[in-house]
Amino acid sequence: MLLLNLNQANGQESNTPKTIDLGSGVWLKGDLHVHSRHSTESSNNSISKIINFSKAVKMDYLCITDHDNHVNGDVAHHTWTDPEFKSDSLLLLYGAEWTTTRGHGNVFSANPYDHQRLFDVRDQRDVNIGKVKKSLNIHLSANHPSGKDNFGFSYDLVQSIEVWNSAMWTKNANAIMIWDDMLSSGRMMTGRGGSDAHHGTPTASEKPSENTYQAEYNYIGTPTTWVYAKTRSLSAIVDALNHGRVAVSANPYSPRVEFYADATGTGKFDMMMGDNTVSTGKPVKFQVQLMGNTLPNEMYSITVIKNGKTLNTYQIKGDAPVITFTDIPDLKGRTYYRVTVEGKINDYPQVPKSMALSGKMVSLSNPIYFNFDPKF
Fold first, then answer.
1. Rg of the chain, C-alpha, whole Å
2. Strand pairing of 26-34 and 368-370?
3. Geometric angle at alpha carbon 327, from 324 and 332, rounded to 5°
4. What domains are there in the chain, each with its CATH number?
5. What does the pLDDT look like over 157-204, one tens digit per residue?
6. Which InterPro entries does UniProt cross-reference here (predicted)?
7. Max CA distance (Å), the chain
8. Which residues lie below 8 Å from residue 202, measured CB to CB, with a gap of 6+?
9. Are strands 276-277 and 309-316 parallel, antiparallel or unpaired?
10. Do the Cβ atoms of 218 and 195 come closer than 8 Å?
C-alpha cells in the first residue's frame, strides 16, 4: 500500500492521511528516447557516457533508441552488443527508433527481440505491420507526432505517444492536441516523454562538433518519464508504460505529479492515472499531489483537463502540495481526466540551459478513465 500525507492546500478541502489502495509499487525515472554513437548523426555520445551521466543524475532506467535505418535494421548486433551496453544499477530496456518514410516510432522491450522483422515491414500496409508487432510482443510508441518526421501510421499500432519531446516544451502543443484526439476516440493511449538527445559534451580526446552546444540545452532527462512499476525490473517498466501509470517532469530534479481517484466512494483512493472503471453517475473525488523536489516557496498552477477541455485551475504551494476536487463522470459516455502542472522549473545544473526552454511546464499526468472499452 502507498500512504500519502494529505495536507491542506491553499484553501482547498482539508484531508487526513488516507491509504491509497493500489497495491505495492515503486516510482522509477528515466529517459525513453536517447541516441548513441550507433546513430550516425550523433556526436560525442558513447553508450558509456550516456549510462554514466544517467547514473550521476540518479536515473533508474534508460532506453537507448538508435535509428534502425542507420544499421539496416540490425540493432541487435550494434547498440545491444556494444560492450558498453551494460550497467550494474541502471535498468537498460531494449529498443530502437523505428525510422521510416512515414515517420518515427520507438520500440520498448524488457527482452531482446527480432527488430529486423519490424524494420523489414516498415513500408508495408499497417495491417501487416501490426501482425509483426504483435508477434514480437513489443511496446511501440509514436515519436514526435507533429512536425518533422511525424508519425504517419495508424495510432492503433501504438500503445503510447511522445507528448513531450526534448526540453523545448513549446513545440509539443500539437502533440498534446493529437493525444487528446486519440483519447477522445476511445484509445487508452499512454503519454510519455523523451529527450531525443543526440549530442554529448566532448571528453578526453574527443573534439567538439557543430552540434556540441545542444548538450547544454537538451540532454538525458529533458524531460524525464516516471513510471509506477510493480517491481524494480524491466518487465515492470514496460507493463507500467502499457497501462498508463506514467507521469512526465521537466527534468530529473523536478517534482512529478501524482493523480488519484476514489471511484467507489469508500474514502480510499483506489484509482491512479492509467486506470479505467465504469461510471456510476455519482460524484467522484480526485486528488492531485506534487511529489519530490518541490520548491516550497513557489506557487504551482494545477490545471485539470476533462475530455480535452479545462475543468478547473488551482494555485498551490508547500513541501508536498495537494488539492482535491469532485466531479461527475458521464454515466453513459466516455470521460477522461488528466493534469498539467506549471510553475518554476527546478535547476538542472548538468544541462544548465534546459530550464529556459521548458518555460513553466513542470509536470503532466496520464489520464484516469471512465467507461473506456479495454477491448477497443
1. 20
2. unpaired
3. 145
4. 2-19+254-369 (2.60.40.10), 26-249 (3.20.20.140)
5. 999 999 999 999 999 999 999 999 999 999 999 999 999 999 999 999
6. PHP_dom (IPR004013), PHP_domain (IPR052018), Pol/His_phosphatase_N (IPR003141), Pol/histidinol_Pase-like (IPR016195)
7. 65
8. 44, 208, 212
9. unpaired
10. yes
